[in-house]
Amino acid sequence: MSTSEKPPVLDFATDWDHTDPQWVSDPYPIWEDLRQRCPVAHTERYGGGWFPATHELVSQVANDTENFTSRMPIVVNGRLGDDAPPAPIGVVPPISSDPPFHHIARRLILPAFAPKPINALEPQIRALCEKLLDDMEGMDVVNAGHGFAQFIPPAVISHMLGFPEEDGDQFREFVHIVLEGIDEMDQEKREIAFQPVADYFEKQINDHVENPRDDLTSYLLNVEIFEGQKLSVEHVFGTMLLILIAGIDTTWSAITSSIWHLATHPADLARLVNEPELMPVAIEEFLRFYAPVTMARLVKEDFDFNGCPMKKDDWLLLGFPAANRDPEVFDRADEFIIDRAENRHLAFGLGIHRCAGSNLARLELRVAIETFIKRFPTFTLDDPSVVTWSQGQVRGARNLPIRVR
Amino acid sequence: MKVTINAEKCQGHGRCFSIAPNLFDCDDLGNGFVIGDGTLSADTIEVARLCQANCPEHAIDIEE
In this complex, do B29 and A110 lie within 8 Å of one another by their Cβ atoms? Predict the structure, then answer.
């Protein structure tokens, strides 16, 4: 069933659907309403699920690995059930892993994403952005989504994994299906989309086994999870897949939402152009206000969560973007304040699953915005009616035509 | 006055060492730690409080 064939949502408190057109285009009033009325919304869709809308409850869930499992971080219609890979590793470790294995799998990848190695990528990311902007030379209207932001994360991720940078683009369609093809119940269709990626990974893994080099793929193939024991091929494969899925749509979305904001708020654009020292706090406010990522958990066993009778295998949609708009935690929560100094946002999640790529995401977002506003110090939306937003658990503008002169 | 990071709570969000690189640094995993013994002066107390207010994990403590 495609989204358009689903019955419209009449009340998000009892029948939420994060792919409903209203939620996709402007979810913020829905969440504010839920915070006041529920604050945990329920749905029978997707086999049953819950959506807490406050910062406090989102934090509770994120820190509760006893009652919630990360085995399936994306809401789909089915459950893995008997086909589930052995707990607690999951399909894409460590995002799909639970303690205690999670800790071990996460420690393996954190050094690659720590500030020092990530900051070393800045000159290269800057050069990439400049080249994309050079390609827009002479244009009056540029596409900040399909002509700019969408190319940045795939190239960076490809570089880190040791693939040719231009190969990054071929993963976009696959990532799109994984993250947005929520109603593709047809497993066959997912597998058809996945096959070229699987073949590509296999080729790269074989090549890296024969010719080890200084990149993430060689690192994963050679790192020892326990003394004398390397990672299983499934684990290497799963983590490469995770880096691909988690590193592309997410950052691309953060970049487009930020450019959309600046295109529609000329005073903020002017301030950022004139006061570049505001960039670090502005980046955090972009992340708070337009947090792109919502995660999911599954309920492990029947239990009562703040008066909600949760059943085993119910979804728990973990709305970090909703938590970021909670007036209990943020002063003037529904206002974008470009120099907001205190900003305890949850854009990168909370607890043991804090986004491992957060340093990279911040760097790409900052460099993308810096280079874009330097090249185009004034710009506006060319035609608001053609702007499209992604659906599902990663939110950002996709088609984003910007008038730059 | 002293500032400390609770290593049990820190998840490596990186807010502290980004805001105050003179007070905080990070280890190979990206988790924050306090530079030196964490003693705060009149010049650093305010920025230490700002870091505290931005830590998503409430991992920064300031002892009066």
Answer: yes
ipTM of the complex: 0.97
| CA A297 from centre of chain | 15
Residues of chain B with Cβ-Cβ distance to A280 below 8 Å are 18-19
CATH code for the domain of B28: 3.30.70.20
Q: Nearest residue on chain A to B14, judged by CA atoms? A: A359
The tens digit of pLDDT for each residue in A238-284 reads 999 899 888 998 999 999 999 999 999 999 999 999 999 999 999 99
Task: Give me the helix-helix angle, A187-210 and A172-180, nearest 10°.
Answer: 140
Whole-number Å distance between alpha carbons of A363 and A248: 14
Q: Which residue of A has its CA nearest to B12?
A: A354
Cα-trace Rg, chain A: 21
Cβ A246 vs Cβ A95: under 8 Å: yes
Short-list A294, A344, A328, A337, CA closest to A36: A328
Domain extent, residue B18, equals 2-63
Instruction: Please name every residue paired with A389 in a beta bridge, in sequence order, or none if there are none.
Output: A397
Domain boundaries, chain A: 3-403
Q: What is the residue whose two structure tokens read 């406010």?
A: A285
User: How many folded domains does chain B comprise?
Assistant: 1
pLDDT digit string (tens) for A128-160? Answer: 999 999 999 999 999 999 999 999 999 999 999
Question: Is-above-0.90 flag for pTM?
Answer: yes
CB-CB neighbors (< 8 A) of B57 in chain A: 350-351
Burial of B22 by CB count in 10 Å (0-12 exposed, 13-18 middle, 19+ buried)?
exposed
Does the domain at A3-403 match CATH 1.10.630.10? Answer given as: yes
Query: By C-alpha distance, which of A50, A85, A90 is closest to A71?
Result: A90
What is the Cα gyration radius of chain B?
Answer: 10
CA B53 to chain A, closest CA, distance in angstroms equals 6
pLDDT tens for A176-202 read: 777 766 555 466 777 777 788 889 999
Q: A–B: how many Cβ contacts below 8 A?
A: 52
Interface with chain A: mutation pick from B6, B8, B13, B15, highest number of A CBs within 10 Å:
B13
What six digits make up the tokens of A25? 């285009």
Q: Do A344 and B53 touch (CB under 8 A)?
A: yes
The HSE-up count of residue A302 (CA atoms within 13 Å, CB side) is 1
Task: Give the chain A residue whose CA is nearest to the CA of B54.
Answer: A344
- For residue A15 the two structure tokens come to 């029948």
